[in-house]
Automatic annotation (TrEMBL):
Keyword presence, ATP-binding: yes
Coiled coil: none
Family: Belongs to the ABC transporter superfamily.
The name this protein goes by in its record: ATP-binding cassette domain-containing protein
Keyword ATP-binding: yes
Native species: Dehalobacter restrictus
Amino acid sequence: MAMIYVEELVKQYDKAKTPAVKGVSFAVNEGEFFAFLGPNGAGKTTTISILTTTLSKTSGIVTIAGYDVEKEARQVREKVGIIFQQPSLDLQLSAEENIRFHACLYGMFSYRPTFQLMPSAYKDRVMGLAEIVGIQDALFKPVKKMSGGMQRKLEIIRSLMHTPSVLFLDEPTQGLDAVSRRSLWEYINTVRKEHGTTVFLTTHYIDEAENVDKVCIVNQGRVASCCSPEEMKKSLLRQELVLDADDREGLTGELSELGLFHKKDAHIIVPYQDKTAQEIIARLNTKLTLLKINEPTLEDAYVEYLNKTGGAAA
């Protein structure tokens, strides 16, 4: 059974001429790291809102851990943790009070009026997560006095308190510095390994999706591509050798004799796909002064896809 299952999902807003989501289908297996990408207005936010029970669908089948997102919304919410793009904190409470109310609403602990009166298991988990994301010194300060980045870290702690089966990350590192971003991803990867957590990611930082198991691009309300990052890169881009030599004419002549397409820029670029870099280099006799292998990134492939389809950047 897929942990997230979506079949022919349609969402038609009132007064809209066309549906925002037009028959989207995909599945995410238990423990899988899944990225959901697409340009602005593609239908990402609408789809995620339906998956997290904050928006009703027009038609289609959507289940989380086997539970229907509309008929069994309470059970779905118990299974998921969500880091929303927009903050959802009570600014009048302290950071720890926001966490405590959340944990008690989820039934993890019985409510106590102060942090000190809470069970040691609660206190240990809060302090451990606060240290990981770096807000232990601000834990008992009012949220309204915390910076935007600190509030983001607080939301991360709150979403991870109940060790969810599915973790929805909607721009999770927005507003975080580089060190905090790295710490967060290290922790999320640890959670995945230790608890088999399924992670559903949307992000403008495409490099954060480089190591996902599957990437799904949605465009104009439809799924345009759904495969591994490696498959996407291979379908859109080729690897490149960057070469140079004192005898550039000799080098380009050899490449031509070998039937290898190449182009001259600041250096000599040799795209390749069917052969390996080693096979190409082994057949060259010209002494090289430069040798680099350019591996395409997921971001390269994503931008190439948008360029080919005329989509706007996400």
